[in-house]
């Protein structure tokens, strides 16, 4: 799991509520370790022609219905060759997709 520092703070707070014990210094050391070694990762570009439903949802932040539409269109019409090809997919949020274009490869 990779999270921002604030999310790791929330995770540690939950652990303490569930009974984890330690000093403030120990919890701070754990927080520093997790924040440094398990920070959010920048996702690698996603090959839109090989992407699974989950890949599309998580990497490109698509709704499930949009991810299904991309896969259905791809199966019916073949591989996408450019961002312009994705404009033909019904129900796709093109503005949002435009913001994700640096994460898409063909």
Mean pLDDT: 94
CATH topology-level name of the largest domain: DNA polymerase, domain 1
What is the total tally of β strands? Answer: 2
Strand order of the largest sheet: 1-2
Write the element-wise H/E pattern from the N-terminal end onward: HHEHHHHE
The CATH superfamily label of the largest domain reads: AF1531-like domain
| Strand-pairing-aware structural class | mainly alpha
Report the oligomer: single chain
CATH architecture descriptor name of the largest domain: Orthogonal Bundle
Low-confidence stretches: none
Count of distinct structural domains: 2
Instruction: Note the gap between the termini.
Output: 28 Å
User: What's the alpha carbon Rg, rounded to whole Å?
Assistant: 19 Å
Strand content: under 5%
Give helix % range.
40-55%
Classified by CATH, the class of the largest domain is Mainly Alpha
Query: Please, how many helices?
Result: 6
Report the major sheet: 2 strands, parallel
Shape: elongated
Q: What does the secondary structure layout of this molecule look like, with pairings?
A:
Blueprint: H1 5-17, H2 24-37, E1 46-47, H3 53-59, H4 64-77, H5 83-86, H6 94-99, E2 104-105
Parallel strand pairs: 1-2
Helix pairs in contact: 1-2, 3-4
């Amino acid at each position: 799991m990779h999270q921002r520092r604030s999310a790791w703070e929330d995770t540690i707070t939950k652990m303490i509520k569930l009974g984890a014990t330690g000093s403030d210094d120990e919890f701070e050391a754990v927080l520093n370790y997790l924040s440094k070694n398990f920070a959010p990762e920048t996702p690698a570009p996603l090959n839109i022609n090989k992407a699974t439903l989950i890949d599309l949802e998580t990497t490109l932040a698509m709704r499930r219905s949009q991810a299904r539409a991309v896969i259905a269109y791809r199966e019916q019409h073949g591989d996408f060759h450019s961002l312009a090809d994705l404009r033909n997919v019904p129900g796709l949020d093109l503005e949002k997709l435009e913001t994700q274009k640096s994460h898409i490869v063909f």
